[in-house]
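Field log, afternoon session.

UNIT: design team B
ACTIVITY: writing a sequence onto a fixed backbone
BACKBONE:
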């Protein structure tokens, strides 16, 4: 998936962790991720979004 496709997909899944990508990734971050880990597919993006949600939930559970 291209950068534009990922941003669109992340926006569609904004409340399921897509916000982490939509709000924080720029084209350079996308290109670096693809160079290191390979192409991003929809299933891989959904896994990534769930990881972001997990990290946020853990942080919120331990925040003062």
């Amino acid at each position: 998936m291209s950068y534009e496709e990922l941003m669109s997909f992340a926006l569609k899944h904004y409340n399921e962790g897509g916000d982490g990508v939509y709000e924080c990734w720029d084209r350079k971050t996308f290109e670096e991720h693809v160079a290191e880990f390979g192409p991003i597919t929809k299933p891989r993006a959904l896994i990534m979004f769930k990881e972001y949600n997990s990290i946020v939930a853990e942080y919120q559970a331990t925040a003062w």
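LOG NOTE: The chain has a mean pLDDT of 93.
NEXT ACTIVITY: expression trials, pending approval
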